[in-house]
Each structure stands twice: as structure tokens, then as C-alpha cells.
Specification:
about 170 residues, mainly alpha, two-stranded antiparallel sheet, about 60% helix
């Protein structure tokens, strides 16, 4: 930049509104706000859930199936509703991706850890999910069908493994 406010032939003396920095500033502020929500949510809420499947299930339970909107009363008391929506959607997608990127044997251990928390309802959940595929609610919105299919295939296989071990395996072990 030289003394005239020009940088290699570009006039840098224009006001922010003339070069649309307001849009950039607004985007950056939304990004920062969303980052704060994610940090708060993951450190205070998700950190106490001991499995990725458990965290995924919890985040998906915050989403209204009819509207596709997430609801977390504690977060909206502190942050804007739009920031909460963006952050929870991002967390949902990230958790989902993390699970799909995990090798199947590790997914099995993680899902068992998640279902173990159901206690006596362990086998009931396994049987229900095998029959009605209601675990599909854990899939984020706008998901490509092949990822939804992969998730369903993996969960179906894991639930079949659990069922085949039912006679010899105590869910608390």
C-alpha cells in the first residue's frame, strides 16, 4: 500500500459498506458466536456423555422432527437462537461423521457403551431398533442418501451382532 491508500492499483480507501465488509464482519461474528456455542455445548453437555453414539443420540433428540429445528433451552438463554441452531446442526453433523469414520469394531464397542446406559432396557432397545429402524432419527438433515444407507447398514449389522450374542452375553459385561 502506498501513501495514497492504493495497494497495487486497488483503492483501499473505500468505506466498509462500499466493499461489503459488513457482510464479512457479520459472517465472522456469526462464526465466533457459533464457535462459542459449540465450545459451551461440548464442554458442559456432551463431555458427560461417555460414548459417541450417546452424544449423537442426545443431539438428535434436540431436533424437532416436524420443523428440523433444534431446541436447547439453556443455550438460547445465553446465545442467539440462530447461533444455537447453527452450532447444534454442526455438532450433529460432526458426531455423525465421526461415527461413520470409525472402524466397525470400535463402533460396536461405542454402541454397546451407549446401550449399556439403558440398563434393563438394553435388549428392548436392540429389538426395537432392529424392527422399526427408529435409529434413523440420528441422521442429520440434508444427508446424502448413501451416508444414510451406510449408517443404517452399520447399525443393522451391529444390532444383529448384539442379538446373536444375546444368549451368551450379559449387556452389563
Amino acid at each position: 500500500m502506498n501513501n495514497s491508500g492504493r495497494f497495487q492499483g486497488v483503492d483501499c480507501t473505500r468505506k466498509g459498506s462500499e466493499i461489503r465488509t459488513g457482510d464479512l464482519v457479520g459472517s465472522f461474528e456469526r462464526f465466533q458466536q457459533s464457535h462459542c456455542v459449540i465450545e459451551d455445548f461440548t464442554s458442559r453437555t456432551l463431555a458427560v456423555i461417555p460414548s459417541d453414539f450417546g452424544r449423537l443420540y442426545y443431539v438428535s433428540s434436540l431436533k424437532n422432527a416436524a420443523t428440523g429445528r433444534y431446541r436447547h433451552d439453556g443455550l438460547v438463554q445465553v446465545y442467539s437462537e440462530n447461533s444455537v441452531q447453527e452450532a447444534l446442526e454442526q455438532c450433529h453433523e460432526e458426531l455423525f461423521s465421526r461415527i461413520l469414520e470409525t472402524p466397525l469394531p470400535e463402533q460396536e464397542r461405542d454402541l454397546r457403551k451407549c446401550l449399556d446406559r439403558a440398563g434393563d432396557a438394553f435388549w428392548s432397545v436392540v429389538d426395537t431398533w432392529r424392527k422399526d429402524k427408529s435409529f434413523q432419527i440420528m441422521c442429520p438433515e440434508a444427508l446424502p442418501s448413501y451416508l444414510r444407507d451406510l449408517f443404517g447398514s452399520n447399525l443393522g449389522a451391529l444390532l444383529a451382532i448384539f442379538s446373536s450374542q444375546r444368549i451368551t452375553l450379559d449387556p452389563a459385561s
